[in-house]
Design goal:
- The chain has 379 residues and is an alpha/beta fold.
- It folds into two domains: 3-246, Spore Coat Polysaccharide Biosynthesis Protein SpsA, Chain A (Alpha-Beta Complex); 248-370.
- Helix content is 51%, strand content 12%.
- The protein contains twelve helices and ten strands.
Length: 379
């Protein structure tokens, strides 16, 4: 059994307008403060609602805290995940089990103001609106005083890195809402890390994204989940989103980037070998082999991370064959163009054309043969 769901009788009957999903891990102290605030705000606005806590088996008294809140009349229910972990997948799970016409995510640490809930709901109900963000960075939005330079810089850099996917000013926000119908458009969700809002904006095809200003407070209890590991996951998340949105073009850019690092490895290793071996031809051959191996492992682990339908050794042999084919084509074209009037006397230009064609052959060989995705592997 992978999860346990405890349902509040207050949320079992009747239509639900807004489902508020709160992912948690060791946030029991905060829930005792947050849930009554959410309830008070939404009851005052006469919003039929449910609050769904998705907890990653914190073992900190979260079930008891939620049970007490439910007995106090709050429309709250708990989903305890026993195997899965991660904020993003927790939000997706909550949205999948929610009954509301509109879905909203907020943090459990009291950094997101419950007072903004009615405005968030009013905005997301506006015809044509796909996604609403409770934003720190639009006019009127603020953050708690005392943010250090590192924290501010980290947030701004993360926002800048998301620019190829959205023009929203605060795409990193964990306070967001969307209609159920928009969430239903999501395809190929691969929630990793903690920035599920950006994933949903991209994979739900959100065109109309609106932001309302909020004051972002520091957490009351517990520790921040923003670790170096989560930052690395965010970079991996951006890579996957680029593959999803830009397809083959994204892979080509990454492939060329890996090739650039391989060139640096090639020349560095060549210089080292020249200093210790008396045979330049052997030094050159070994340097090429090392660089090619370097490129293989980087492409396998990064560029074509989802293309491991066959074993590494078999893929390595294919990669070598693809590189040999590309290099032979590059050499043949460079040599052949020397006999074309336009390139006579321009050997480097001819060589450049050969490199471009050879790189293209290497890339297509890697994409369609070496790292062909699971379910499409060549026999």
């Amino acid at each position: 059994m992978s999860s346990i769901s405890t349902v509040s009788s207050a949320a079992q009957g009747g239509a639900v307008t807004l489902s508020v999903v709160v992912p948690t891990y060791r946030e029991a102290e905060n829930l005792a403060l947050l849930i009554p605030k959410i309830s008070a705000v939404l009851r005052a606005a006469a919003v039929a609602h449910e609050i769904i806590i998705v907890d990653d088996n914190s073992q900190d008294g979260t079930p008891e805290a939620v049970d007490g809140l439910r007995k106090d009349g709050h429309a709250v229910r708990l989903i305890t995940r026993l195997e899965e972990r991660g904020l993003s997948s927790a939000v997706v799970r909550g949205f999948q089990e929610a009954r509301g016409e509109y879905l909203l995510c907020m943090d459990a640490d009291l950094s997101h103001p419950p007072e903004a809930l009615p405005q968030m709901l009013e905005t997301v109900r506006t015809p044509g609106t796909d996604f609403v963000i409770g934003s720190r960075y639009v006019s009127g939005g603020t953050t708690e005083e005392g943010w250090g330079l590192f924290r501010w810089l980290n947030s701004r850099v993360a926002t800048l890195l998301a620019r190829p996917f959205t023009s929203a000013k605060d795409p990193m926000a964990g306070y967001f809402a969307l209609p159920r119908a928009v969430f239903a458009r999501a395809r190929e969700l691969s929630p990793i890390g903690y920035k599920i809002g950006l994933e949903l904006m991209v994979k739900c095809g959100c065109k109309q994204v609106r932001e309302i200003p909020i004051h972002f407070s520091d957490r009351k209890f517990g520790q921040s989940k923003l670790t170096f590991k989560e930052q690395v996951r965010y970079l991996n998340h951006l890579k996957r989103l680029a593959d999803y949105k830009y397809g083959t073009l994204s892979r080509l850019v990454q492939f060329c980037g890996v090739g650039a690092t391989g060139m640096a490895v090639d020349f560095s290793f060549y210089a080292l070998l020249l200093s210790i071996l008396p045979w330049p031809w052997l030094s050159r051959a070994l340097a090429i082999w090392v660089a090619m191996t370097w490129n293989f492992f980087l492409n396998r682990g990064f560029t074509f991370w989802d293309g491991r339908a066959i074993g590494a050794l078999r893929q390595y042999r294919r990669f070598v064959a693809s590189c040999v084919a590309g290099n032979l084509a590059s050499w043949a074209i460079a040599m052949g163009l020397n006999y074309v009037p336009l390139f006579v006397g321009h050997r480097f230009q001819a060589a450049f054309v050969g490199v471009v064609v050879g790189t293209g052959i290497n890339f297509l060989g890697s994409l369609l043969w070496v790292f062909r995705r699971e379910g499409h592997a060549a026999t």
